[in-house]
Amino acid sequence: MGIGQKTTQKEISMFSIHIGLKYIYYILTHKKKIIDSKKKKFTNNNNFSDHLADIKKTINSLEKSDISIEEIKLIYYDCPLSIVPTSVFDKRYLSDYLKFNTKLKANSFINYYRFLENSITGLYVSSKKINNFFSKKFPLFKEFHYASLLISEFKQKCNIENKKNIFLNFHQESFDIIFFNNKKLEFYNNFKSNSIEDYLYYTLFTFTQLNINNEKIHVACTGEICLSSKKYEFLYKYVRNIEIINDKFSIPSFENISEKNILFNKFK
Fold first, then answer.
1. Domain ranges, ordered by start, for the chain
2. CA 2 to CA 255: how far, in whole Å?
């Protein structure tokens, strides 16, 4: 069944498309309520542009159902995000900002924008074909890297009683570490993790580099982690003040999507 066929709602507030290399999540929302969703898996895919055919098919399905969409948001995953203080950012050096964490090609399409009250500029490589399609068909669409949205969400959750706030956000095969000092972003990185030991190693290594005491710091976790998971059990042996805060973001439950992602409930 195509997305949109479960609802009689003909006016949609937002259509968000979460794009990874091996998946796409389509989510329809109206007045801050999720009304339909769809997940599409891909195998052995290393190019976002290969997803364009499925995106076009999905949009055509919505149009055939006479569903009008007020806002479209594209959110990219599985590509490194480089962050630069806006005060020193210069668009003439886009490739230089990315060369240490991204394999750039001659035709790489680099997107960039400001966030955190314009104090930070984020850069990443997305798909020129997908961007061109939406630019022509939906000129007012918005495009983001998931990590910039994640950082903005976490800043709002910083505990003002704690000078230092650190967040771990877990995906199925990687996780993000985000660190605020006095509500100012001081560190962000995503780490690929093939085992439970990898999560612990990168966490403790980062704590050491940031001069963080793992016995005392409060660590807030979101995403693919729960109290009964091996990730939590393993981390708790070394990071004692750990809390899972998925409930603070009201992560929705889907019949067809099992992954936990706080951005699925992002309506702005």
1. 1-157, 158-244
2. 14
Which of 216, 215, 234, 212 has the alpha carbon at shortest distance from 225? 234
Alpha-carbon distances of 217 from 166, 174, 185, 204, rounded to whole Å = 8, 22, 16, 12
Per-residue pLDDT tens over the stretch 217-255: 999 999 999 999 999 999 999 998 999 998 888 766 677
- Classify domain 158-244 at the CATH class level: alpha beta
Q: What is the CATH number of domain 1-157?
A: 3.30.420.250
| Alpha-carbon span 51 to 34, nearest angstrom | 23
Q: In this structure, what token pair is assigned to residue 34? A: 């999720």
Q: Say yes or no to pLDDT of 20 above 80.
A: yes
Q: What pLDDT score does 5 carry?
A: 61
Question: Which positions ≥6 away from 151 have C-beta within 8 Å?
Answer: 115, 116, 120, 178, 185, 188
